[in-house]
Amino acid sequence: MDSTQNQKNLVESLAQLAAAAMTFQEVNGIPVVHLPEGHEVHDLEGLLPHPTQIRVEVKLFTLDAFIDYFLQHNLPNSAIFARNKDEHDFTAIIDFHQRGEPAWGRHRATYPCMTSTEWTLWTGENGKKMTQEAFATFLEDNLGDIVSPDGASMLEVATTLQVKRNVEFQSSTRLSDGQVQFSYQETQKGSTNKGMVEIPERFVLGIAPFHGGERYELTARLRYRLDGGRVVFWYDLLRPDKIQEEAFNRMVQTVEEKTKTKPFMGWAPINR
User: Fold this and answer.
1) Rounded CA separation 8/16 (Å)
2) Residue range 135-144, pLDDT digits in tens
């Protein structure tokens, strides 16, 4: 189709519109145009100097940012929802309804409580069996997360396990001081040497359940199994779900204290 035909079609379309009985009206501050049956209706809000309402959902990366945003934009009817089932997150609906006065709820701010790298690592390896070498390496790589025993003591444990990886473990004994004592036999150049290795029966982590959040102490109980002169290690975390729940509840308290708004515990309503 050539440009001449395009121009002709445009002129005809404009003539049809001009002939139509168009009327203009303002609906809640938004100008709209009414066209006869068979024509589309378009609002003209985009021609205004600014929108008639805020339609935006802001996603924040820290709890402090979420609180700051809420304090900058909150209205008397603003509401906060805190979800601790399936996922952990906060949603602020700035233009929320109040009794007898419905609102669109289109201005929102969310803060998804992402688990920290350390929490994901330790809970992800929880209960998984490791060889002596793998367990020693795991401890050494993550010494910074262990608060008790101290880092030097745990480094010594890791180093000892790495050095003694070719010995034959024969028995284990739980000691009264909270240690597990392993007896081993080492054969070198025809001679046999016996010795002992002591490892703490439990150790305590100091990690934050959520990214950028407070650190909490989490107890890990050492587990092991002797198998043909080799030893397999793993650890069991003591109720990590309760620690995470405590951390989230503390965040809810922080939000309430700083925003002076008590969060609703539940899912935020869907914006329709």
Assistant:
1) 12
2) 888 988 999 9
Query: Which residues have CB under 8 Å from 105's CB, separation 6+?
Result: 93, 95, 96, 97, 269, 271
**H helices, E strands: number in the chain:** 6, 14
Q: Are 181 and 175 in contact (CB under 8 A)?
A: yes
DSSP-assigned letter for residue 210:
B
| Distant-in-sequence, close-in-space partners of 143: CB < 8 Å, separation ≥ 6 | 151, 154, 155, 158
Tokens read off for 239: 């109720």
The whole-angstrom separation of Cα 50 and Cα 155 is 62
Q: Rg for the chain (alpha carbons), in Å?
A: 33
pTM of the model: 0.74
The answer to whether 95 touches 269, Cβ cutoff 8 Å, is: no
Neighbours of 243 (CB within 10 A): 20
Which residues, in sequence order, are CB contacts of 138 under 8 Å at separation 6+? Answer: 125, 130
Give SS3 for 244: helix
Q: What pLDDT is stored for residue 196 in this prediction?
A: 73
The model's pLDDT over 44-92, given as tens digits with 9 standing for 90+, comes to 667 777 777 778 899 999 999 999 999 999 999 999 999 998 789 999 9
Q: What one-letter code names the amino acid at 152? A: A
* Beta bridge partner(s), residue 234: 223
- Cα distances from 22 to residues 9, 38, 199, 224, 263, in angstroms, run 20, 13, 86, 83, 48
216-227 sheet: strands from edge to edge:
146-148, 202-207, 216-227, 230-237
Q: In this structure, which amino acid lies at residue 23?
A: T
